[in-house]
Amino acid sequence: MTLYAALTASRPEKLAIASLVAIAGSILLTLSAKLSIPFYPVPLTMTTFVVIGLGLALGSRLGSAAVALYLVQGALGLPVFAGTPEKGIGLAYMMGPTGGYLLGYLLAAFAAGTLAERGMDRSPLSAFLAAIIASAIIYVPGVLWLGALFGWDQPILAWGLTPFILGDATKAALAAAVFPATWAMIARKGGL
């Protein structure tokens, strides 16, 4: 089935296609998490790039659905997250230091998708701004969760924010350059 045929399909067919796209997005997230570079305090991955890209390319609902599916797979113990062993550790991992950032992924995909739906992906500058906003959203629950776990007397910002700003800005620029054209094409054809 061509992309055009998929985008002009009936409602049940669109639901089936959207489900497959969400599954593909969760697989892409897993691959982006597993291809990591050792870094302190957490491995450096392309996961934020993919999270933001899913929102920009698929919109708020479908982008969020892909991220939610990824999170459910992790909660069930599948080894989808960066640094998880062959047999994932599920909710225990999600309640650790990374937990707030994982929640931030869901919020960021929704925000990037919402901004794309409102036209913030029509120029490279506005797409970059949307990607930066989505990237910043990841930090809010991430840093708050680190503070709750370890205490605010610890160097929380040095652990969970400042080492990642430059890399995430680069990933946001890359996402803004790559993914908006996909969303524009899907929107022109009537969406999924």
Features:
192 residues; mainly alpha; Arp2/3 complex 21 kDa subunit ARPC3; 9 helices; globular; disordered N terminus
Q: Brief overview, please?
A:
This protein is an all-alpha fold. Helices cover 71% and strands 0% of the residues. The chain has 9 helices and no strands.
Describe the SSE topology.
Elements: H1 3-7, H2 11-34, H3 47-75, H4 91-94, H5 99-117, H6 124-150, H7 156-160, H8 165-178, H9 180-188
Helix pairs in contact: 2-3, 3-5, 3-6, 3-8, 3-9, 5-6, 6-8
Task: Walk me through what this model shows.
The protein has 192 residues and is mainly alpha-helical. It has one domain (3-188): Arp2/3 complex 21 kDa subunit ARPC3, CATH 1.10.1760. Helix content is 71%, strand content 0%. The chain is built from 9 helices and no strands. It has helices at residues 3-7, 11-34, 47-75, 91-94, 99-117, 124-150, 156-160, 165-178, 180-188. Mean pLDDT is 85; it is low at 1-5.
Mean pLDDT, as a whole number?
Answer: 85
Count up the helices.
9
Structural class: mainly alpha
CATH architecture call: Orthogonal Bundle
**The top level CATH class name:** Mainly Alpha
Gross geometry:
globular
**Multimerization status:** single chain
Membrane topology: Multi-pass membrane protein
InterPro entries: BioY
Transmembrane segments: 15-37, 49-72, 92-116, 128-152, 164-186
Keywords: Cell membrane, Membrane, Transmembrane, Transmembrane helix, Transport
